[in-house]
Design goal:
- By secondary structure, the chain is of the alpha+beta class.
- It contains 8 helices and 8 strands, in the order αααβαββββαβββααα.
- The protein has helices at about 1-20, 25-40, 50-55, 65-70, 140-155, 190-200, 210-225, 245-265; strands spanning about 65, 75, 85-100, 105-125, 125-130, 160-165, 170-175, 180-185.
- The protein has a 3-stranded antiparallel beta sheet.
Length: about 270
């Protein structure tokens, strides 16, 4: 039953991604992708696929948790509410038979394999009960400085230096050859986030076009800025995909990088 339900959710997910990939209207395509990025900013701990599933089923979701987790938080899912179906991996032992070359006897070789089961989560709008603790507010000069410092430390951990330079045409750039990030003294934190994304995503990716690199870096920076309430312009090109596979691949890279940057800044 669990396997059948998971296959049903995956089939619906693939069909929706196919519909996105077939969009030809650039404005609509970008709007869908920006909606994904805003959802990812709220749920960066989830996989790219589950972020899409949350967006498809409840675009207004702001905080989700399972039924029992809401009970732990002293909130109750309201009667009649339908859960948001996401996919959770469940490992199981698999094996195949091999013949020992010396003895000629057969033996079982065990390994791990993954399959998925459907898990239901509920948005806070679907619950009632005690108010949750206030979220940490990041829109202060002190916290903005903390993010800036954390990004410089992350660069150092990855073997990159950071320096500021007057008279630059762009706000900031990353130099993979000498492994450094250079920024104007007055460049915003969003510019540093963008270059840190390039650093993590694109070093050594010589076969990837510059347009795709900019798409991924700007999308990553948008997620991080949304998460920390840092003012930034919405991406204005976006969604250079042509297939469901490309949507998944790009989405996975973006969310993994954004999650790494957010975690580094929240330590």
């Amino acid at each position: 039953m669990h396997t059948e339900k998971a296959q049903e959710v995956k089939a619906d997910f693939e069909e929706r991604l196919k519909g996105l990939a077939e969009l030809t209207d650039a404005a609509q395509k970008s709007a869908q992708f920006i909606a994904y990025l805003k959802t990812a900013a709220k749920f960066h701990k989830y996989s790219a696929s589950n972020i899409w599933l949350i967006l498809f089923q409840k675009p207004t979701a702001s905080r989700v948790a399972g039924y029992n987790r809401w009970k732990e938080l002293k909130r109750q899912v309201r009667k009649g509410e339908h859960g948001i179906a996401i996919l959770a991996p469940c490992g199981f032992a698999s094996h195949h038979t091999e013949t020992d070359e010396e003895t000629g006897k057969e033996r079982k070789v065990y390994g791990n394999a993954n399959r998925f089961r459907v898990v239901s989560v509920f948005d806070i709008e679907q619950t009632e009960g005690e108010p949750l603790p206030a979220s940490l507010q990041w829109r202060t000069e002190e916290r903005n400085a903390k993010i800036h410092t954390a990004l410089i430390e992350l660069a150092k951990e990855n073997g990159y230096s950071y320096r500021e330079q007057d008279g630059m045409r762009e706000e900031a750039h990353v130099n993979y050859k000498v492994r450094e990030i250079v920024s104007r003294p007055n460049a915003g934190t969003s510019a540093l986030i963008h270059e840190a994304a390039h650093m993590l995503l694109h070093e050594g990716r010589y076969g990837m076009g510059s347009e795709q690199k900019e798409t991924e870096a700007e999308a990553t920076a948008f997620i991080v800025c949304e998460h920390f309430e840092i003012e930034t312009n919405a991406p204005n090109y976006l969604a250079h995909w042509s297939s469901p596979e490309q949507i998944k691949e790009s989405g996975q890279r973006i969310i993994k990088c954004a999650s790494q940057l957010i975690d580094a800044c929240e330590q």
